[in-house]
Automatic annotation (TrEMBL):
Lineage summary: Bacteria, Pseudomonadati, Bacteroidota, Cytophagia, Cytophagales
The name this protein goes by in its record: POTRA domain-containing protein
Annotated ranges, domain POTRA: 43-117
Cellular component annotations (GO), alphabetically ordered: outer membrane
Entries under InterPro entries matching the protein: BamA/TamA_POTRA
């Protein structure tokens, strides 16, 4: 326990009351009261942290908008309290993160950071569909249970207390895969550089080799028809709270059987059965969303340039760019608006089928067209939704639980209406009957989003597209 004595000065109490009012009602009002608050200088004293049984203090302090000994205006201080709390939640280390100002005098304030850590170790079974989405499996593949992956995986978040993550996966079924990944967000003293290392091996007996009518066509046999080995490393630079630069370098080696090349000589370039290449990518992002898993306010910009080949092997030479901007608005009264605009362009005219991109492949989709894939070297999309939070709270599960992290469950329910639009350019080789390419695609619909424990999001959506095709779809991550 930390023993903190708070001096209850009249002026300090008034300031604290006004700060709480402005924290709840926003900071956009140009009033004389707000102006007078802005002229008050507050000195940040000690910062106390409770509840971090494993997480290192420097990881927590890195996310705060203030430091000990800083002098800050009252208005900026009230804003920094809210933003610091959001950023602590966005580390995904804590179930609860509260930033509490403790006024010791008229102008002196200490800070109490009150945390409840998540459960960090998850040995989980693998049981998931191998197809692009639930609709692909349910409709196009006729609920074929041979197209299921199963196995075991271990997620160890916050492995050493520095918000680092270890992932091991051993998977069988439709795709046999072994994967190992380690991520450390900060490797230097100033906490600006991070590193991620990963390696994986996978093989398949069933492989998608062509696209006809925007439906994937598969080849299969009792033998292994594709093997893929990949290894990569990512160096990140985070100079500020919201901006991030990443450089990713990797190597991939893939081989396919004669069955695959006979079905599609352009699966790799030049009809080869073996493809090796190095990849180099640069990504810049500016992200000040309130909560990453399900944002309700703020914005995100992301730009990426990638080159496959690097001239080391003659198997591949492909350069692409990608950009997106997403904006989220809290309209008040539990109403929210969100919009996302994304674009992609591949400068190569020789795109092997294995490295195709387009609508229907993550992260690109148009709701209402979940049954289809629309491959192209260039496409653009826009997704918008308007939603209302009609229910939220925290459900107490078990007071007597020995594990604090599983005593309560937060939840929120959102009703929404959405409109999506997209346009894909000329189709790539290895595709036929491409009636959606070079045509405007659009859809509208209604849905229900449920957000709950450990960033879990489930979407129930009913949509109708341009061709008046209707459908009910279930997905397990936020659409924007």
């Amino acid at each position: 326990m930390i023993d903190i004595k708070v001096k209850k000065g009249l002026k300090g109490g008034i300031i604290l009351f006004l700060l709480l009012i402005f924290s709840l009602n926003g900071f956009g009002q140009n009033t004389s009261v707000e102006d007078s608050l802005g002229s008050v200088a507050i000195n940040v004293g000690k910062i106390y942290i409770t509840g971090n049984k494993k997480t290192k203090a420097e990881i927590i302090l890195r996310e705060l908008d203030f430091v000990e000994g800083q002098q800050i205006s009252a208005r900026e201080f009230s804003q920094s309290i809210v933003l610091s709390q959001q950023k602590l939640i966005n580390t995904r280390l804590f179930v609860i993160a509260e930033v509490v100002p403790l006024f010791m005098s008229d102008t002196q304030v200490d800070i109490l950071i009150r945390l409840q850590e998540r459960w960090y170790i998850f040995p989980l079974p693998i049981f998931k569909l191998a197809d692009r989405n639930f609709t692909e499996w349910w409709v196009n593949q006729k609920r074929d249970f041979s197209r299921v992956n199963y196995g075991v995986q271990l997620y160890h978040f916050n492995l050493t207390g520095y918000n680092d993550k270890l992932i091991f996966r051993s998977q069988f079924g439709f795709t046999k895969q072994y994967e190992l990944q380690y991520q450390r967000p900060y490797i230097n003293k100033s906490q600006t550089l991070g590193l991620t290392l990963r390696t994986s091996f996978a093989n398949n007996k069933t492989v998608a080799t062509n696209t006809d009518g925007h439906r994937l066509q598969f080849e299969q046999s009792d033998d292994i028809n594709r093997r893929i080995f990949s290894s990569s490393g990512t160096l990140t630079y985070r100079p500020s709270f919201y901006s991030r630069h990443s450089i990713d370098a990797g190597f991939s080696r893939a081989s396919v059987s004669e069955l695959i090349t006979n079905a599609n000589p352009n699966y790799f370039q030049n009809g080869e059965q073996l493809q090796k290449y190095f990849r180099l990518s640069y990504v810049y992002s500016w992200d000040n969303r309130d909560y990453f898993a399900y944002p309700l306010s703020g914005n995100l910009f992301r730009g990426e340039v990638s080159n496959y080949g690097l001239g080391i092997f003659n198997d591949l030479n492909m350069f692409s760019v990608r950009g997106s901007t997403s904006n989220f608005f809290d309209l008040g009264g539990k109403l929210y608006l969100a919009n996302s605009l994304e674009g992609y362009y591949n400068f190569s005219d020789e795109i092997p089928y294995m490295l195709r991109s387009g609508f229907g492949y993550k992260p690109d989709f148009i709701r209402g067209y979940e049954r289809y894939v629309v491959e192209s070297k260039a496409f653009v999309s826009n997704r918008s939704e308007f939603k209302y939070k009609f229910l939220s709270g925290i459900q107490e599960l078990n007071r007597r639980s020995l594990i604090d992290q599983f005593r309560t469950m937060p939840y929120a329910f959102y009703l929404k209406a959405f409109v999506d639009m997209g346009y894909a350019g000329e189709a790539i080789r290895s595709t036929t009957n491409n009636f959606y390419n070079k045509e405007l695609m659009y859809s509208a619909g209604l849905g229900l989003d449920i957000v709950t424990y450990y960033d879990f999001v489930v979407r129930f959506e009913f949509s109708v597209n341009r061709e008046r095709q209707t459908g009910f779809f279930v997905n397990f991550m936020s659409a924007l």
